[in-house]
Sequence to fold (241 residues):
Amino acid sequence: MGVKRYYHKLDHIVHNVASFFRPILCRIYLYGLDRKTGVFSHIYNTIRYGILLIDCIRYGMVWKMTSKTDWLYEGCIILAEMGVQALTIELLCQRLKLTKGSFYHHFKGFNGYKTDLMAYFEREGTFNIIEQTEQAPTPSEKLVRLLEVSATYPPNLEIAIRSWALQDADVQRVQTDIDAQRMTYLQELFIEMGEPSSQALILARLLYTIFIGCQHIQPPIDEAGMTQLFHEFQRLYGGTS
Fold:
């Protein structure tokens, strides 16, 4: 993060230098036209190419240090803080202090960004959590770990994505897949704990409903409240409280 702040500061300095020379460049150019002399033309071209070089270095540096993941992460922050209506290319560029050219360097328009954003959300909010859970040695410990991670999961992003899914068919398809993957994993986990498949499905639905309901009830149930409900679930259905 320190390196990124350094480059943003350097970029700001370079931008100011280029901005300072641009009005001078215009005056030299107009003065040269008025005097019809080659000296000013040479000065003009020297400064102009210098500014072009600065801009190439500047934007190339920004593109290099700003990864695709930075754009996707910022999109998740905007969704969580402001909702789907606020998620625009303009706001993304404004918050990252980058140009639209940098955006299009990574994405094929907003629809391309939406596709990658949902894939990022699926990876971070489902696949990575399952991967963390699977590191526990026993099914019971996997359940404990899953509930601990779920209780600390930021709810606002989930709420925003589900709201978006009501308005956008593409988002709805991904959200449906995410719910199915989570439910399948929970059911398999309960089967590992010795439950028959039909009962494991009921337990998976019950637990997942607690998770989603805590996010959507008004006022939302906070981390401590969700942890309490999860502990009660474990007590009732064979886990440790």
Observations:
- Residues 81 and 156 are 7 Å apart (CA to CA).
- The chain has two domains: 2-65, 109-236.
- Confidence is low (pLDDT under 50) at residues 1-7, 25-36, 57-64.
